């Protein structure tokens, strides 16, 4: 107890009732708080307080966790999002992306009705870039192709998931790492925008490009996410995949990844992005001097609810 | 659906059962995970997944929250811990500090037994420095005293909370901001270590120093914590307080703050640190040329459980 001459306080500190304290934090939000933000912060506050109570998390442990978060922020810039990676290894982005499917599109309604073939979403991951250039139909996005790479002709049709009609002028944004497991922004030996490109669909809803067969790679291990994986006795590898972001006015933008059926780690992706219907087959391609493999990858977008 | 010639997948993406997905993340921890870490990460994962499900948090909102966290990390360095401040305005450090009281000391046992007078804890906050110098008994820690400051003689006895015996050679680390609301590391016009000092208790368990009457101040508003307070329609002010960290071998280190009874914001501290038994009274002091106020502040430490 802190005491002084004129202080007539009780002899010991009051232990606040835990839920009462939590609710006092929630109640501190003012009248002008946007309703959605109030809803989110209320739930977050209650869950984080409950987490601390449930685990008897002490200040030393709390500070260690916080230092991990600050470290992630310090490592993050335009080219790297370590906070996102840290979230990904705990499955948070995957969980949020499921919510997109439920909230932003007709998927949830259609799924229960019939055999509508909406492409599943997968997490964005930390390596997407907003400034990737638009490339020509059927052109390549592999420029510094290493000797061990297998070039693939990657193509497909973008359709309306409800009507099945092809969608022209849809934007297909594709990115992948090289065979050393590094994206171009991580690797000084790759030119800028290597293995990434934006493509538009033609009048038949088709897109086409040249890329490479993807390889498994470890997520970066020099930051807090790598440290946490190590502490949790987990491997850092991702199964071989190619990232897609497909958009078209009037449709829910689809962020996804496709996975090579022959890759390792399909059942234990370090960032929990795999879904069984996103597994694809690279097949041998003959008579094309530019590629030895063919990959057909069709994408069905959900119309937005109006 | 992603489809190609040899892919015989189901016509639509499987929506994983939410709790099944959460448990698969928990199950990904390897055998070598330390048990305490497994316990903490399991609870954290479940609560964060539940938060996302409960609020239908979508990717856009998730990314906005993540950017706030990365921003906090980027702002943090040896002199500023914005991640801690962000946690503090949600009451997280307060919640964890309650756990310290329960876990690290005999408090919980003693409290239920008798009128043991253990001093309550309060949060550390982001302005403590590890390298504060040791100062002489009865010396001053206010060097750049502004004209509007009231100098106070601050003194008290550090005792064993169970026996009531005075503790000699306890370390009393004290820090406070100046009347402009800034700690020395935030203010180029204050000399280094102004208004902070470490003091040791004498053979009678006493410590003594000169400081100033504290003032309310707003937490920094130029970062994510300030932004969030604004969005939540909350004021950024803290009630006038002085920080204490008191330690002695064999006792639980006590981190606390004392609050001026006459200050504003005693009932709505922006970081939820106040406790009623930590409220103290500054009283007029006569006959001392160095100070106009007197503050007696006694501290009772809990013996560690053996």
Automatic annotation (TrEMBL), chains A, B:
Q: Which organism is it from?
A: Exophiala mesophila
State the family it belongs to.
Answer: Belongs to the intradiol ring-cleavage dioxygenase family.
Q: Record's PANTHER family?
A: DIOXYGENASE, PUTATIVE (AFU_ORTHOLOGUE AFUA_2G02910)-RELATED, INTRADIOL RING-CLEAVAGE DIOXYGENASES DOMAIN-CONTAINING PROTEIN-RELATED
Q: Record's SUPFAM superfamilies? A: Aromatic compound dioxygenase
Q: List, for all copies, the residue spans of the domain called Intradiol ring-cleavage dioxygenases.
A: 125-302
Q: Where is this region: Disordered?
A: 1-20
Could you state one GO biological process linked to this protein?
A: catechol-containing compound metabolic process
Q: Which cofactor does it need?
A: Fe(3+)
| Pfam families hit by this protein | Dioxygenase_C, Dioxygenase_N
Biased composition range(s): Basic and acidic residues: 9-20
Q: Which UniProt keywords apply?
A: Dioxygenase, Iron, Metal-binding, Oxidoreductase
Any idea what this protein is called?
Answer: Intradiol ring-cleavage dioxygenases domain-containing protein
Domain Catechol dioxygenase N-terminal, residue spans: 35-101
In the UniProt record, does the keyword Metal-binding occur? yes
Please list the GO terms describing molecular function: catechol 1,2-dioxygenase activity; ferric iron binding
